[in-house]
Amino acid sequence: MPKEMREGKISEPNLEEQGIFPKRFKSHNDSVGIVSDYFRKNKKFGTEAELLERMEKPAENELGTIYVHTPYCDKICSFCNLNRKQIDNDLEDYTNFLVSEFEKYGKTPYMKSKKINVIFFGGGTPTIYKEHQLERILKAINDNFILTDDCEFTFETTLHNLNPKKIKVLEKGGVNRLSVGIQTFSDRGRKILNRTFSKEETVKRLRNLKESFSGMVCTDIIYNYPDETVEEVLEDARIVKDLKIDSTSFYSLMIYEGSQMSKDIRNNTLELNYELKKDFELHDAFLKSMLESGEYEVMEHTKIVRKGRDEYRYIRNTHQGKDILPIGVGAGGKIDNFEIFRLSQDKAFYAISSDENEMKMKRISGLLQYPKVYFDKLKEYVSDEMFNEIYKIFENFEKKGYLKIHETHTELMPEGIFWGNNISATILKKCLGGAKDVKSSSLFHINRKHKKNS
């Protein structure tokens, strides 16, 4: 165990521990990356043969997740550089590959001893397959794995990739949650982000989807795209509430190397002037508008859910360190102590971790992703001395107005939700003895107009 986690690191609080952050972390990956970097030297690389050998024995934990990646789109968002490419074939070969992977791993004693309570198809655009291909893929899952009766089964999608036949195929195969990449309803914003359909057509199709699909309908919203106004982000919130969308992920625009936006910025054909004040203004307007009706609540830093509807078990399982079987090119996950990332149909990384402290730190990271952090849960992973140090940081954050300290837990205020990943990173670095910071995952996260928050 790192000495700091065992004994606590007693020191004067730095600026971040006082709630003064030099930049904003927009993604959970920015904070949990601190943990991955710290423990990277303790990992060794294994092989698929070693993984399959481990899977010849039953699993220790009953529940698990399957993540399936589809690295294809028929239209590329301007901000995206994820593991995807524009489709140039009918995906029959890739369908065969997925089916063979389900059969290979489904027959292992490890997976036969598990009940799958979460399946998540990400991308790319997983609804890009033809109906008969979707039928084969979904049948292979149901034939090769044991699913719980209440399994949360998600497909990410775009509106133009859905039709009544596909919706029926998905529902028949057990899909009960659709995550639609809306990003914004603004006509101007949709053009910037390279989305299909006008605002009017998008609302119409989303309304029809809500009526025709029996499961949950969720959306993604991006704010702070170039020159976005408060009026535009409030209109996005109004439409989400009016349609009674079951949950919405909302992210400040992140631009990555390799995306079309990054190329446009480098070629001076697109100007992006990131200002922290505006980022907060848009975030605050959207968040407060969503919460004012009383129908929605914050589930985690970037997820607002309709009360009594979306549980978003996929992210909960991830934060709790449960197994995630990764299937498909670009998929990442973990089986026991194997961390897996699939580079291609015949190549993958298998990192083996033998340090239980990495697991503890990732569980702490998971706890810190929610608006309420319960002290008894935190104390399961840190010493009393370290908890006292963390509590002092909480007190500093309370003075800044980021959170309130209750008898059993802390609770983030709206500004604290905005800084949520920075707060998480600060606590993680304290536990690791001041581990060095990580770069923001967004290429154009900060520019000359950015000023320190004080």
UniProtKB/TrEMBL annotation:
GO terms for molecular function: 4 iron, 4 sulfur cluster binding; catalytic activity; metal ion binding. Keywords: Iron, Iron-sulfur, Metal-binding, S-adenosyl-L-methionine. Pfam families: Radical_SAM. PROSITE patterns: RADICAL_SAM. GO terms for cellular component: cytoplasm. CDD domains: Radical_SAM. Residues 58-295 form the Radical SAM core domain. GO terms for biological process: porphyrin-containing compound biosynthetic process. This is Radical SAM core domain-containing protein.
